[in-house]
């Protein structure tokens, strides 16, 4: 089964066309890196999968045409347990007076935990341990580095063992070790769920072409429309990158050198 099906999906905010005629099938078990210039519609695409586009604040009317199916359902009907989301680290409000453990438990409850039950604590600690962050459980968010925060939010996203994991630039502001750890955890999670009917699909927005080349099974090159979708070696070619970005800058040697 395809985890995601876009059929001529378009979205417009007032006069502004953000996504145009997206048609695409993402096979279950894929690791998709979404690449494209600023304003290409990458986050809007993720929000569409999360079923959040209708509630967006906007200047004009939101117009949506075509369809998106997520794990065989309309996005608004997907059980919350099936999807995990890791937002951009750079956008976090660190002044929020919360402990890392509470953030992870909030992923279990989908609400803020005023009192943490022993079973919730056990599960949250086990998850933090799995992503190498158990030592952070009692720390306040404001005291965490970008990489530490990213681990806590990854634990929060994984705690219900989602079938679809969505990440919005999770490695931005994270050092090389933190980034390598992130990919290791994602790959371990995917391979632990690689058998049987429910294979895990990962969708990650990134600006890191090299990481996409090494870790993704598929690359989606987006610039309001699909410029390319397929194996990294096919999509990260000079022509596709030039079409999406207008120029290929530093990645020229990377893609041309292969
Ligand atoms: N709610 C909204 N109302 C009006 N315009 C919006 C809204 N959300 C996004 N846009 C516009 O749609 C375009 C695409 O935004 P989006 O955040 O999806 O791009 P992106 O590819 O994720 O960009 P970046 O790489 O900069 O994060 C932008 O020009 C943005 O200003």
Automatic annotation (TrEMBL):
EC top class, as a word: hydrolase
MF-aspect GO terms: ATP binding; ATP hydrolysis activity
Domain ABC transporter positions: 4-248
Keyword tags: ATP-binding, Hydrolase, Nucleotide-binding, Transport
Matches recorded under PROSITE patterns: ABC_TRANSPORTER_2 (PS50893)
UniProt cross-references to Pfam families, sorted A to Z: ABC_tran (PF00005)
Known EC number: 3.6.3.-
Family of this protein: Belongs to the ABC transporter superfamily.
Protein name per UniProt: Zinc import ATP-binding protein ZnuC
